[in-house]
Amino acid sequence: MNTPITARAHTNIALIKYWGKKNAELIIPTTSSLSLTLDQFYTDTTVVFDEQLTHDELSLNDTLITDNTLTKTTAFLDLVRQMAGIDTFARINSINHVPTAAGLASSASGFAALAAASSKAAGLDLDRQALSRLARRGSGSASRSIFGGFAEWVAGEDDFTSYAHPIQENVTMDIQMLTVVLDGSQKKIGSRQGMQHAIATSPFYNTWVAESAVDLVAMKQAIANNDFQTLGELAEHNALQMHSLNFTAKPAFTYFNGYTLSILNLVQDLRRQGIQAYATMDAGPNVKIISQSDATQVICAAIKNNFPNAGIEVAKPGPGISYL
Ligand code: PMV
């Protein structure tokens, strides 16, 4: 058990979003969701259980962490210890290859890598479905980062039935996510808090649940048909529906800022010019542009023309969990 284990997990961006839990403790979502795992952004996490330790010790990007992130990590490791029947504390070393300002959630890759590394370090031999269920307990979106390419998180009803599975791990479609970074500030409302507030107060929440089920079926069909345009249209529509819940919550809130709307406008302008580009946004202001490789140059030029200071990252489909 005293052998350090290192796992790598990549981030994913949802094309059909997860926004709300029916069971907050077990992280069982109200809807199923579907994402694309990305090649550019990942987390490497090393875990070793050590009898000498009197508490879990976490370092993130070589900095010792003692805040709320450590509390969440210990709560997660308690699940692993319970499964493995041990009570030993662990040393966790996590390196995030997710630019912190990119507005890309690192919790998905973070908890997926932690689930894989800690379970193996504790002597457990979990298959990918069990890993997905475990990762889900850290952060819902992490359940999908166990798999590469397109993955669906089936909402399920309880801990046993709520997990992700691959839809297409080796992506055949020419698809990429262009992350446009215009605002590097930390989000003010965490996803955990934001989504439950939307459930509790948006009058459109039930409509969202129904519409998202329709979008999901269509999205899986678009992937099967290699139909990029339909995929893009559905993803943008689904993201805007999710953000509408926040605009219609009481009190209302939004992750959008002026830049978010400007980039949304720019994406619509590009489409008017015949360029296939679609937008998706998560719990932060930065926009991800879903596009194809032959449009990279013209999209980047349009962004740079309007926003010379924008940071742009281009990511392609990435792999599932691996051990290093
Ligand atoms: O898994 P969380 O708690 O970081 O929530 C993720 C929520 C969204 O990124 C907005 C949507 C999604 O499905 O990833």
UniProtKB/TrEMBL annotation:
Residues 9-164 form the Diphosphomevalonate decarboxylase-like N-terminal domain. Keywords: ATP-binding, Lipid biosynthesis, Lipid metabolism, Lyase, Nucleotide-binding. Residues 178-309 form the Mvd1 C-terminal domain. Its EC number is 4.1.1.33. It comes from the Bacteria. It is an enzyme of class 4 (lyase). InterPro entries: GHMP_kinase_C_sf, Mev_decarb, Mev_diP_decarb, MVD-like_N, Mvd1_C, Ribosomal_Su5_D2-typ_SF, Ribsml_uS5_D2-typ_fold_subgr. Belongs to the diphosphomevalonate decarboxylase family. This is diphosphomevalonate decarboxylase.
